[in-house]
Amino acid sequence: MTSTNPREVWLRGPLPNVPPLLQPVAHALLQAREELDAALLDFPEDQLWARPAGVASVGFHLQHLTGVLDRLGTYAQGHALSDNQLQALSGEGHCPEPPCHVFDLVQAFDEQVERMLAQLRQTDPDTLLEARGVGRAQLPSTVLGLLVHAAEHTTRHLGQLLVTSRILREAKTN
């Protein structure tokens, strides 16, 4: 899904059918997807779960990026997490059914971005300030807060993934 457009996503103009206030969220998610796809092209499978200096593995970040978008999207819709979502959360950082492949984890993230984009397109702007509870404790947020945090959290973990993957690639070539 890597674009050949040299401009960052936010400089390519508005995305069709995405409410104006949610454009930055959509732009950030698409930018993250493009950067992740490019960075992990031909990433070595044997490095997927490596933890240089004890940092989180590339595999963890891939699972977490996918999972957090799913969970925050669920909360934004006003729903509690399902048993499957809770199980996926507890399994982040481990290959649930070996072998785990980089391609499959990247594809899962790409597909989750598509689901989140569909959710953004369907979000009524009049609901953006509606209260939403997060987690079992029902911590206070809003639809907008959850969607913005989804983008922010994605970019934070993408940055960590990019650094970790680069360190692992450099270590392997030296």
From TrEMBL:
Residues 29-161 form the DinB-like domain. Gene3D superfamilies: dinb family like domain. InterPro entries: DinB-like, DinB/YfiT-like. It comes from the Bacteria. This is DinB family protein. It comes from Hymenobacter jejuensis.
